[in-house]
Amino acid sequence: MINAYRARALVCSLLASTLVHCASAGFGDPTARSMRSGDLALRWQRRLVEPAALDWAPVIRGGVAYDHGRDRIFVGSVDRGFRAIRSEDGALLWRFEALGRIDSTPLLDDGAAIFGASDGAVYSVDSETGRLRWRTVVGAEVVHAPVRAGRFLIVVTGADAVAAIDAQTGARGWTYRRSPPGGISSSGHAGLLVNEGRLFTGFADGTAVCLDPTDGSVIWEQDTAAEYESADGQNEGHQAIDIDTTPVVVGDTVFMASQAVGLLALDKVGGARRWSNARLTGVTALGSDGRSLFASSLEAGVVKLDPFDGRVLWARDIEAGAVVNMQAISRDRMLVSSLDRGLWVMRSTDGSVVDGLRPGRGIAAPISLTPDSRIFVHSNADIVYALDLAR
Question: Are 62 and 367 in contact (CB under 8 A)?
Answer without folding.
Answer: no
